[in-house]
């Protein structure tokens, strides 16, 4: 009948929920924040991220794999010494595989210098190596006579072309986005730690006061007794 106790109960419930939300926002654990910051700073002190290290290993694999294929080609076509002299000393653009090996060396030097030594966070270096590799291989396949020299005339150009584009994909879709995400996480954690430092000692549960629910219940019971007592006396 009397809406006052129900309104008081709703007000108390809303006050408690608002206090709980404030407590969730401001109860920042400085120890946990410092642990996260130290973990991110530890990654920075390593000098190179794990995904960038994997990329550098793949670039090294590119050079070693092309070198291995070239050495096998030298050994198959009449011995290493004779074929090496023919392809290097008497270099012929139309029949030699030596330039494909030099192309792998070019990719290795540029990419390691850019992304391991200088630690670039841009794609221009990989774009340069991939563009040079693609243009050179396409011109060599069109103008040279490699296809008439057996299987290696197909294998070396195709492998070099595929490896160059795998490196581009790995850097553009794995290395750079993941490092940017880790940097954003570090900035967010540092910003949260600075905000936590502005709150002296944080906010504890004792700083919030809400009337006990038992008092509201007792007041409602007393009012019911007051309204029911005259009815009993009239009876």
Automatic annotation (TrEMBL):
<feature type="region of interest" description="Disordered">
    <location>
        <begin position="200"/>
        <end position="235"/>
    </location>
</feature>
<keyword id="KW-0812">Transmembrane</keyword>
<feature type="transmembrane region" description="Helical">
    <location>
        <begin position="96"/>
        <end position="116"/>
    </location>
</feature>
<keyword id="KW-0472">Membrane</keyword>
<feature type="transmembrane region" description="Helical">
    <location>
        <begin position="55"/>
        <end position="76"/>
    </location>
</feature>
<feature type="domain" description="MENTAL">
    <location>
        <begin position="48"/>
        <end position="218"/>
    </location>
</feature>
<feature type="region of interest" description="Disordered">
    <location>
        <begin position="1"/>
        <end position="21"/>
    </location>
</feature>
<dbReference type="Pfam" id="PF10457">
    <property type="entry name" value="MENTAL"/>
</dbReference>
<keyword id="KW-1133">Transmembrane helix</keyword>
<feature type="transmembrane region" description="Helical">
    <location>
        <begin position="123"/>
        <end position="143"/>
    </location>
</feature>
<dbReference type="GO" id="GO:0031902">
    <property type="term" value="C:late endosome membrane"/>
</dbReference>
<protein>
    <submittedName>
        <fullName>STARD3 N-terminal like</fullName>
    </submittedName>
</protein>
<dbReference type="InterPro" id="IPR019498">
    <property type="entry name" value="MENTAL"/>
</dbReference>
<comment type="similarity">
    <text>Belongs to the STARD3 family.</text>
</comment>
<feature type="compositionally biased region" description="Acidic residues">
    <location>
        <begin position="216"/>
        <end position="225"/>
    </location>
</feature>
<feature type="transmembrane region" description="Helical">
    <location>
        <begin position="149"/>
        <end position="166"/>
    </location>
</feature>
<dbReference type="InterPro" id="IPR051869">
    <property type="entry name" value="STARD3"/>
</dbReference>
């Amino acid at each position: 009948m009397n809406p006052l106790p129900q309104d008081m109960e709703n007000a108390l419930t809303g006050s408690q929920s608002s206090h709980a939300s404030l407590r969730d926002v401001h109860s920042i654990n400085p120890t946990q924040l410092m642990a996260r910051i130290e973990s991110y700073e530890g990654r920075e002190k390593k000098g190179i991220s794990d995904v960038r290290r994997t990329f550098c290993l793949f670039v090294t694999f590119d050079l070693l794999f092309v070198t291995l294929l070239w050495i096998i080609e030298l050994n198959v076509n009449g011995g290493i010494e004779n074929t090496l002299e023919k392809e290097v000393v008497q270099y012929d653009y139309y029949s030699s595989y030596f330039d494909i090996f030099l192309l792998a060396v070019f990719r290795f030097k540029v990419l390691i210098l850019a992304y391991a030594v200088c630690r670039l966070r841009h794609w221009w270096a990989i774009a340069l190596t991939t563009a040079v590799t693609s243009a050179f291989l396409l011109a060599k396949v069109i103008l040279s006579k490699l296809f008439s020299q057996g299987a290696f005339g197909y294998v070396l150009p195709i492998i070099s072309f595929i490896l160059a584009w795998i490196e581009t994909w790995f850097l553009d879709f794995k290395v750079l986005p993941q490092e940017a995400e880790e940097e954003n996480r570090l900035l967010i954690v540092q910003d949260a730690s600075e905000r936590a430092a502005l709150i002296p000692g944080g906010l504890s549960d004792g700083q919030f006061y809400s009337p006990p629910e038992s008092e509201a219940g007792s007041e409602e019971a007393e009012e019911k007794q007051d309204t029911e007592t005259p009815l009993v006396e009239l009876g």
